[in-house]
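Because discrete structure vocabularies remain unfamiliar, we first show an illustrative case, written as a sequence plus integers encoding its fold.
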Amino acid sequence: MIPVTGFAGKRVAVFGLGKSGLASVRALAAGGADVIAFDDSEKNVTEAATEGIAIEDLRAVDWSAIAALVLAPGVPLTHPAPHWTVGMARNAAVEVIGDIELYCRERRRIAPSSPFIAITGTNGKSTTTALTAHMFAAAGYESEAGGNIGTAILSLAPPRAGRVHVIECSSYQIDLAPSLDPLVGMLLNVSEDHLDRHGTLANYAAVKERLVAGVSADGTAVVGVDDNWCQAVADRLEKAGKRVVRISVRRPLADGLYLEGDRIMRAAGGTAREIVRVGGIGSLRGVHNAQNAACATATGLALGLSAETIQAGLRSFPGLAHRMEEVGRINGVLFVNDSKATNADAAARALASFTDIFWIAGGRAKTGGITSLSGYFPRIRKAYLIGEASDEFAETLDGSAPYVKAQTLDRAVELAAHDAAAAGIKDAVVLLSPACASFDQYRNFEIRGAAFRDAVKALAVS
């Protein structure tokens, strides 16, 4: 735990008693703050009270006595409307912040030069976070990953020299961290997502930009420049005097890291040389993972790792559950769990990685559905559609790829496994890459991915 001492002796309100909210309560209390907490969920309130947390209905408190409102990232700050606590805090001129902001303030107090790496992007940030943390651990550093990837940031060990913190930041978390100042900030990419919480793509992109714009004066901004939003961000950062490392997996760069075949090249001063190779690393299959690896490589170089050390870290990376996870091979068919692909852009990265695909897709569709994936339809031997999006996706696929409305995931796995084995194709893959949120049938993408894993295991023993 990281005790947050900046509010010692002051009253702080925490709203949202999930994992990050509870960690914030504990960290603030450990630092000497007078903490009161609340949640819209009676279950969360009851469970927090049994832990001894002081529960107060924030509708009835004296806001003039509160120094800050710490908001859990899942609670709306702006769109579709600010949560009622936000309105009450603002009316009383009380700042509204999140757990990432608490971390940043405490780090500046106790270890301002400690290696703090913050990562964001529409897609790839969890894999890049896990990969970067693994790379530093393999290099002999004490390395911890946290934030949006699963472990609340304030549950990590306190910042100090030699302890690397690699933090995945969602747009919600960045929105609540006005002084976010990593030593290395990564912006991987920007595409349409979370518009229900940010209103427009421009608003969403602006929030993402704040992570790299806040990089400390002696730090480095690593920016993927293969989309127009991020290219513009890199240009603005450079004009502002930031040290920027550009990353591309689509074209050579005059200055930065880019992909050439299976090699990640570094260009500078009119010359380019190979830094590492990503070929043959199963956990980093696909161009999207080459981008993740290039961004991790740039970070390693920025913090003094050698190319040889980085290469060893890439090769030993085991991969991340639900992100192009190879579940197994049955009757010559590879089964891949990419349940984390909750939008079309994420699914595109998986579809680009294989050629003979028996594709399981569907759930609760995002804006635009799968129309943007039409260029990959020739790779699809057959699609198995599940959940609420079945009818919409069927209309999009009609005439372009064969499909069946399987409705449920277990049925889709059964049908796809049978068809893939019967096809007699050397490199057939049954790919769960839903291009949808899971909420119509599963509480989150992890549970959906685990259900896929279980269904494949059931095939293996049947």
User: Anything to note?
Assistant: The mean pLDDT is 95.
